[in-house]
Amino acid sequence: MAENRAKQMVSETVPLGVLSLAAVLEKGGQQPLIVDLNRWYHEFLRKHHSGEAGVDGELVEFSAFAAERIKLLPADVYGFSTICSSYPLTLRIAETVKQAKPHSVIILGGPQASVVDVPSMQAFPFIDYVVRGEGEESLPLLLDALDSGCSPAPIEGITFRAGAQVVRNPNAPVIKDLDDLPTPAFHLHPFIKECRDLPLELGRGCPFACEFCSTNDFFRRRFRLKSPGRVLEEMRKVKQEYGITAFDLVHDMFTVDRRKVVEFCETLLESGESFQWSCSARTDCIDEELIALMYRAGCRGIFFGIETGSARMQKIVKKRIDLHEAMERLECADRYGIKTAASLITGFPEETLEDLRGTIAFLMDALRLDHVEPQLHLLAPLADTPIQRRYADQLTLDGIYSDMSHQGWQQSSEDREMIAAHPEVFPNFYTVPTPWLEKSYLKELREFVLVGMQRFRWLLIALHQDSGDLLTVFDAWRAWRLPRGGQEWTSSFDVSAYYAHLDFQNELFQFLESAYLTPSVNPSHPVIVEMLRLERAVCRLRKEADGEQRRADARPGVPHVPSSISLLRLAVDYEQLIACLRRRDSLASLPARSSTLARVAKEGEEVSYFSLSPLSVELLELCDGVRSKDEIIEAFACSDPDTGGVDARKAGIFGLEVLRQQGLVGV
């Protein structure tokens, strides 16, 4: 990752659960220390690449690097939060700490350890305790028992050792009134002042029972919300102390109780505060009236779990949302400018090719909306979910990792050995049987779609619309690539690496030009050929920018087009083309009309595009860095432009000023 992007990701990954526990401990008189392993990992990478990350002069991997620093902390109890993707790494760090400090106490908590507590403790003797589920009551009781030397046997919600036996106490009751919890100890997070937004807990518990989901059981499916007044109080406190006014309001299913959502929004509006926030919702628990109210109250982002674009699969995985209604909700949020994530999953055991077509079609329809970010994930059989329990004896470790929680990133050899030896502890790294679909096909399709979305979104939409099914294009691409020396993948990582490389884009464009968009194969729409030509031009500009092969800016005092701007000419009206794709109209209906785009690629900013009028193009072409302003105006007037009866010189002066204000002309 680019250095600045890495820093931003690291600083904004605030461990809300850990900070909530820390606040409870502080309230009870304890003084917890917070370790941000994300930040340490970033430091480790920098030192590793410079040859500095070592112990006694030897280069090490991250678990040893982290453990070496952790064991120096003035502590004798070490609590590790756990999630599925990094669980092997967490265990290796904990083991190294225990080896260095044998008398220390290792406690695990969080979603993963909570559901694989017994097999984890049986397999890894360095684990002393697991605090399961909501730990704000169980953890202080456990620490008090450790301080006093009392037995932890009476404490609900923990798993512990009694001699050679692993004992799993009954679950602790859920925390009924979340308002009783103190505000998370954000002051203990060492990089809080670098954050642009913060997570705040809205509530806990999802009442639904999707087959693939683990969070509903973690919170015992008990739906609870903090009071609007309490959430507002925490938002104001964060604003006052850190100047932060943007929040990720954390709850798996905020909009289940419409009345409480309305109450929350009205509380924010009546407060007069100007906060921005995002949340999670189901498309069948929200409507246009509620979306409008949420927007007025500051909502600028919503995560929607769609899961599958197949109505049949919706019933099988027990999501049971109406797909037509779901798309309407995405379109409504898009009209209000609310950024939405539409998350989809493939790789279910019952999923057929037709089900997959429905999922890809839904994703492509969502991609037409400006403020929607479609996601496509491979199913991970998360521990103790209905899917994992049903297929526990049929799981396969085939190297095709799901990407959930970043677990698709390359695993170390130590992690892979641990995963292979203990499938009951790490089922999420395995795959369920998919008798109707090849897993490697799904993995490659996911990379094809997601990289295409990022690099040539509208071309991908056009290919889908033209063919009626993007899978048709993907299948033709695979059939073309392999006989021409295309790589057969040996690992999941290899697939991701290829599609992330520019070779993919170059080879796909070659396939489209030579084999797919030819008159004999696809004679109907030269519009797509023109879109491909545009993408080729954009690729060339990116390469020139990377190689610093940019034109020099003009001499002082002379109007010129800055080096960050490029003009792209098309034989089709680009605005009408995009409108046609948004409406799903036939591309054949587009009139033959040329257009010009200005591509603006300023350093440190997202690339943007302007559709230019013919008069703007004419003026920009005259701004060659040689002509003076008067010479440009004179040449413009002499070209007899169609200015609608306005004096050509006045129109030229006005046009230059507008282009200057837009940043398309510099002096």
Strand order of the largest sheet: 8-11-12-13-14-15
Overall average residue pLDDT: 88
Q: What is the count of helical runs?
A: 27
> Any low-confidence stretches, pLDDT <50, length ≥5?
none
Helical coverage, percent range: 40-55%
Largest sheet, strands/sense/barrel: 6 strands, parallel
Note the beta-strand portion. 5-15%
Envelope shape? globular
| Computed Rg | 29 Å
How many individual β-strands? 18
- Separation, N- and C-terminal Cα atoms: 35 Å
Structural class, by secondary structure, is alpha/beta
Can you describe what's shown?
By secondary structure, the chain is of the alpha/beta class. Helices cover 45% and strands 13% of the residues. It contains 27 helices and 18 strands. A 6-stranded parallel beta sheet has the order 8-11-12-13-14-15. A 5-stranded mixed beta sheet has the order 3-4-5-6-7, sandwiched between helices. The two termini are 35 Å apart. The model has no long low-confidence stretch (mean pLDDT 88).
